[in-house]
Amino acid sequence: MNPIIEVKNFTKKYGDFIAVNNISFEVEEGSIFAFLGPNGAGKSTTINTLCTIFEKTSGTLLIDGKDITEQKSEARAAIGVVFQESTLDVKMTIEENLKMHCVFYNIPKKEVEERIQFVLKLVDLLDERKKIVGALSGGMKRRVEIARGLIHYPKVLFLDEPTTGLDPQTRAHIWEYILKLQKERNITIFLTTHYMEEAEICHKVAIIDGGVIVAYDTPYALKKKHTKDKAYITTKEPMALENVLSQYSLSYIKKEGYYRVEVEYLEPLLEVLSQHKEHITNIEIKKGTFNDVFLEITGKTIREEA
Ligand SMILES: Nc1ncnc2c1ncn2[C@@H]1O[C@H](COP(=O)(O)OP(=O)(O)OP(=O)(O)O)[C@@H](O)[C@H]1O
Fold first, then answer.
1. Residue 223, domain member (yes or no)
2. Nearest CA, atom 12, ligand 1
3. CB of 44 closer than 6 angstroms to any ligand 1 atom
4. Which of 37, 46, 89, 118: disulfide with 41, CB 3.0–4.6 Å?
5. Which residue's CA lies nearest to atom 24 of ligand 1?
6. Does 44 map to a domain?
7. pTM for the full model?
């Protein structure tokens, strides 16, 4: 696979303060990459530098092989950005907003109509093009932002918390478009999110904390490494259950009314329990979550609903 984003030994200082400290990572072309971290970790600093908005202090940052400092305009041409705060002109129609963006990107006049049709089709807004942006729902506005971010046909789309503040159904729709872009158009998606279930469906995740990358892997590998599955067992014969668990070296925590057993692999535990089911009145299994991963790695929970 081909890395489309390459960050090598990137450092960013604000005065004497080191906000990002010598980080390196790559994003594969055509993948969905999640960049996570608690507040103040260095996410915005890294993204704004990659998007050529901030100047780096040191290191090498390449987008589609273009150095973001030496070849700023080529790097810019390869990226689309959707910020958390809407930057649409609410008094104009969808179409007018898109046309204005075509002017910013010097898109030849004869290509404008074709591009507007293409991007609005991607986010299912072709029939709404004449509507005033101010009258649209939050989810529709986000779709217009995504369409606008794509109008110059970038290879990488940066999405800063694309679904924050949207209701679950609209969030699911936005994800349909994100997956469509990645699958059908091979566009690389670089996103930040504080919804852990969204991070979980990305191909790769990097977690930044205190200006350094503290984890970088697939969600599956991170969950495997950093979480345990839990079984909550209820019994009417505590002594017998404790004996069984001890016999198989399964450590447990006795709680009021139930026992909690944490295991790396569920299968051996289930095997043991099935052999001794006469001692068990109820069992509930909880798989490790990506929230557990984040907590284990950073010691913090990612902030809840905005
Ligand atoms: N212009 C600035 N001058 C000085 N310090 C800054 C500046 N911008 C950011 N910082 C500091 O750099 C660190 C990283 O900030 P950054 O905004 O990159 O974090 P973040 O991970 O995006 O956080 P959040 O999730 O809160 O947006 C923080 O300690 C922040 O206070």
1. no
2. 19
3. yes
4. 37
5. 39
6. yes
7. 0.86
